Amino acid sequence: MTNSANPPDLRPDLAPKARFQDPVREGQPTVGMVSLGCPKALVDSERILTRLRAEGYAISPDYSGADAVIVNTCGFLDSAKAESLEAIGEALNENGKVIVTGCLGAEEDYIRGTHPSVLAVTGPHQYEQVLDAVHGAVPPSPDPFIDLLPATGVSLTPRHYSYLKISEGCNHKCKFCIIPDMRGKLASRPAHAVIHEAGKLVDAGVKELLVISQDTSAYGVDIKHAEERGHRAHITDLARDLGALGAGKDLWVRLHYVYPYPHVRNLIPLMADELILPYLDIPFQHAHPDTLKRMARPAAASKTLDEIAAWRADCPDITLRSTFIVGYPGETEEEFQTLLDWMDEAQLDRVGCFQYENVDGARSNDLPDHVPAEVKQDRWDRFMEKAQAISEAKLAAKVGQVMDVIVDDIDEDGIATCRTKTDAPEIDGNLFIDEGTEGLSVGDIVSVEVDEAGEYDLWGRRG
């Protein structure tokens, strides 16, 4: 196990902290849940807990108050693996009965090499095996008159927003990534099933749908963009259908993990027409063509700049967020400088960055010319300084504007933490309202005039 170069606060892929609000009746069997990793893993946790709730289990965020604990692990980076092993060890110390699932669960020998006493190890989205393991550890004891499950299932996010997973797996073969090995090739959900789930969420009061997958742009490719029950499995059609759910309502539809394929330009008119949010989360990863080739990723960074210019011409309000890797094997100072120059031209709104690290099983491990740790740290510092300056300038330009925000939290002092349409939960910034919040509730969408800007956050007052 290598030391982590990327502590959790440097990883822009993490899901929000899971929220548990489940009352426990006397004598009810209780299962704890620790959900690590990305929003896709959080959706897996929600599906597992929904099935368990339907069988009469209560859900606890506390190890000591549970009859058994499920740890949903992440295996994206070695630092994520270390975090997962630490969480498993903590659960074993505090509870003793631990079931492991998720991406790292695909490496059972690796887990049992450190924690041989776990009850069961299952891979990602192996829901039935998780349930079997829970049944073996803690038999169900349902009370059909009490254990009523809401129509939308168990949600681990605040009630006003929800992740909507449209596919599993990925067909890309990026050398630094082992996600396809753990989660398999692209497997898209039928469009009508996605729309049905989204409709139930909207009916239950969800104000924001965050569309997620490993490769959102490729949605439907594996099922030949099949049309069924009036809905076609193509990201443009799906985005249009999701936007239509908000007719006459306040509904935000936000797209994550969108690869910049040519057909992405067909989404931009939907943003300009306010059917979906003018927001694209695109994993560019780097800008130098040689670095991108070593990553086994598309290497047309200059064409990407042309695409960005075209998107902004059609939808001037579009917000672009991305993630990058610095210190990839073979990255020269010249290649890194190309990335900084590209950032100057691209002027992305929201940016996250990883320092490269080896991951067991990744082909990039075998590349020559690995970059020393101190050089990676220096490049990360310089990259984030550039990104911060761009963010600060873009936010300063918003002072005086009136914009809609969604309220995520109101603390005991009456300060409201909100997000604009340019901000996804946890990974982007916030807008704070520190006075005049009387009558506001979490989940409200209200108009605010921006009166102050920082490096990543805004402050405003109600109009």
UniProtKB/TrEMBL annotation:
<dbReference type="InterPro" id="IPR013848">
    <property type="entry name" value="Methylthiotransferase_N"/>
</dbReference>
<feature type="binding site">
    <location>
        <position position="38"/>
    </location>
    <ligand>
        <name>[4Fe-4S] cluster 1</name>
    </ligand>
</feature>
<comment type="similarity">
    <text>Belongs to the methylthiotransferase family. RimO subfamily.</text>
</comment>
<feature type="binding site">
    <location>
        <position position="74"/>
    </location>
    <ligand>
        <name>[4Fe-4S] cluster 1</name>
    </ligand>
</feature>
<keyword id="KW-0689">Ribosomal protein</keyword>
<dbReference type="GO" id="GO:0035599">
    <property type="term" value="F:aspartic acid methylthiotransferase activity"/>
</dbReference>
<dbReference type="GO" id="GO:0005840">
    <property type="term" value="C:ribosome"/>
</dbReference>
<dbReference type="InterPro" id="IPR007197">
    <property type="entry name" value="rSAM"/>
</dbReference>
<keyword id="KW-0687">Ribonucleoprotein</keyword>
<feature type="binding site">
    <location>
        <position position="103"/>
    </location>
    <ligand>
        <name>[4Fe-4S] cluster 1</name>
    </ligand>
</feature>
<feature type="binding site">
    <location>
        <position position="170"/>
    </location>
    <ligand>
        <name>[4Fe-4S] cluster 2</name>
    </ligand>
</feature>
<dbReference type="InterPro" id="IPR058240">
    <property type="entry name" value="rSAM_sf"/>
</dbReference>
<dbReference type="GO" id="GO:0103039">
    <property type="term" value="F:protein methylthiotransferase activity"/>
</dbReference>
<dbReference type="InterPro" id="IPR005840">
    <property type="entry name" value="Ribosomal_uS12_MeSTrfase_RimO"/>
</dbReference>
<dbReference type="InterPro" id="IPR023404">
    <property type="entry name" value="rSAM_horseshoe"/>
</dbReference>
<dbReference type="GO" id="GO:0046872">
    <property type="term" value="F:metal ion binding"/>
</dbReference>
<dbReference type="InterPro" id="IPR002792">
    <property type="entry name" value="TRAM_dom"/>
</dbReference>
<feature type="binding site">
    <location>
        <position position="174"/>
    </location>
    <ligand>
        <name>[4Fe-4S] cluster 2</name>
    </ligand>
</feature>
<dbReference type="GO" id="GO:0051539">
    <property type="term" value="F:4 iron, 4 sulfur cluster binding"/>
</dbReference>
<dbReference type="GO" id="GO:0006400">
    <property type="term" value="P:tRNA modification"/>
</dbReference>
<dbReference type="InterPro" id="IPR006638">
    <property type="entry name" value="Elp3/MiaA/NifB-like_rSAM"/>
</dbReference>
<keyword id="KW-0479">Metal-binding</keyword>
<keyword id="KW-0808">Transferase</keyword>
<feature type="binding site">
    <location>
        <position position="177"/>
    </location>
    <ligand>
        <name>[4Fe-4S] cluster 2</name>
    </ligand>
</feature>
<keyword id="KW-0411">Iron-sulfur</keyword>
<dbReference type="GO" id="GO:0005829">
    <property type="term" value="C:cytosol"/>
</dbReference>
<feature type="domain" description="TRAM">
    <location>
        <begin position="396"/>
        <end position="463"/>
    </location>
</feature>
<feature type="domain" description="MTTase N-terminal">
    <location>
        <begin position="29"/>
        <end position="139"/>
    </location>
</feature>
<protein>
    <recommendedName>
        <fullName>Ribosomal protein uS12 methylthiotransferase RimO</fullName>
        <ecNumber>2.8.4.4</ecNumber>
    </recommendedName>
</protein>
<keyword id="KW-0963">Cytoplasm</keyword>
<comment type="function">
    <text>Catalyzes the methylthiolation of an aspartic acid residue of ribosomal protein uS12.</text>
</comment>
<dbReference type="InterPro" id="IPR038135">
    <property type="entry name" value="Methylthiotransferase_N_sf"/>
</dbReference>
<dbReference type="Pfam" id="PF18693">
    <property type="entry name" value="TRAM_2"/>
</dbReference>
<keyword id="KW-0004">4Fe-4S</keyword>
<dbReference type="InterPro" id="IPR012340">
    <property type="entry name" value="NA-bd_OB-fold"/>
</dbReference>
<dbReference type="Pfam" id="PF00919">
    <property type="entry name" value="UPF0004"/>
</dbReference>
<keyword id="KW-0949">S-adenosyl-L-methionine</keyword>
<dbReference type="Pfam" id="PF04055">
    <property type="entry name" value="Radical_SAM"/>
</dbReference>
<dbReference type="InterPro" id="IPR005839">
    <property type="entry name" value="Methylthiotransferase"/>
</dbReference>
<keyword id="KW-0408">Iron</keyword>
<feature type="domain" description="Radical SAM core">
    <location>
        <begin position="156"/>
        <end position="393"/>
    </location>
</feature>
